[in-house]
Amino acid sequence: MVAGKLKKVVRIILRLPLYALAIPAVLVIRMIRPWVLVRFGDLGSPRIGHFAGNTEVYCCEQDARINVPDQRYVDLFYLVWPICNKQLASMWRRVLRVWPMWILASISTVNRVIPGGADHEIGSNTQHDRDVHNLYDRFPPHLAFTTEEDAKGKACLAAMGIPPSIPFVCLNVRDNAYLDAHQSHDWRYHNFRDSDVQNYVLAAEELADRGYFVIRMGAKVCDAIKSSHPRVIDYATNGMRTDFMDIYLCAKCEFMISTGDGLVGVPKLFRRPAVMVNAVPLGYFLTYYSNLIGITKHHYLLGNSQELTLSEIFTHGVGFSLRASDYESKAVQLIENTPEEIRDVVVEMVERLNGAWQAHEDDEALQKHFWDIFPIDAVEAYEGRPLHGEIRARFGTAFLRNNRAWLR
Description:
By secondary structure, the chain is an alpha/beta fold. Helix content is 38%, strand content 11%. The chain has helices at 2-31, 48-64, 86-95, 101-113, 147-159, 177-180, 201-209, 243-252, 265-269, 310-315, 324-329, 339-354, 363-373, 397-402, and strands at residues 37-42, 73-78, 98-99, 168-172, 213-216, 232-233, 256-258, 274-276, 292-294, 298-301, 306-307, 332-335, 394-395. The protein has a 7-stranded parallel sheet, with helices on both faces. The chain has a 3-stranded parallel sheet with strand order 1-2-3, covered by helices on one side. Helix 3 (86-95) links the parallel strand 2 (73-78) and strand 3 (98-99). Helix 1 packs across helix 4 (101-113). The radius of gyration is 23 Å and the shape is globular. The model has no long low-confidence stretch (mean pLDDT 92).
């Protein structure tokens, strides 16, 4: 603790000359405000979900003229270390004005200290990744690979044994390995979102038997996936993982299977479909994304083995809980989806994509019943912003068929 405070003091002292140089820059920026508004912001680069999602929402809002100034303006961004993915940083530099951190962070800090600086902060339209205006369906992706990058990606796929004509699915299962590697912060409050990758083997091998390759993703993972199927590739542990291929695979996959960690923001950025499994908290379900099907963990009351119904999840106060301690204090135990539940929702995505999906007579009624109960008008507790726009996603059909009593 003492060492950390000492490092912070040393950093402030070392930055004093930069702050001194930033003062005249801020004064000039204030002086030219009547003619051009200069705004600053960071790109959330330490966490890939925010780096991808927040930034893409910002770009879409610029296209839609939402949350933009009513005068001529220039937005300047900087990256914050550590940068979670260098390939994504390189691609954002192609479409945004990204300045060196040592310049712009100092100017941004001084701007906040001098009264009247709020108008020069890019602000809330880059501080969330929820597309509540449903802009992903209106605008194309803002990032693209160069010709050289595309050739590199195809060569890497070939090296992994994936032919050009064979589709592949990305599998990303959240565990505590990545955040535990960042010891500067205690991330255990996120552990309620973790899942056991072995519960996904049934779905992965079902996909493989249907002709897909399945690529298990992850920069750091706790365990290798236990599958001997030749079409199931543990890219997270086989030594082939790179920042570049993380982005390329997410952009080119048929769809991603995700537990709701940050990496799912990358296929969304490229408008690829996604299957969400073990999604919690349920109130943060990605309702706005039309290419998404998802299911949630089971919520049980400790002591009496009673599963909370859909409405009880919210009335019991855990529908929007973002910390493990919230569930503990409410005596709620989260139980992961079974391998069969995971397989069923994955098969639904496959069959919807290839046109083979066979609906039951009451499927749409079950879907409507779910969304009638779901609090679609919910807002963030800490800033009061809406969490949901128009409902475009679907909840897993087999889950609803098999858990009709839960729908109350």
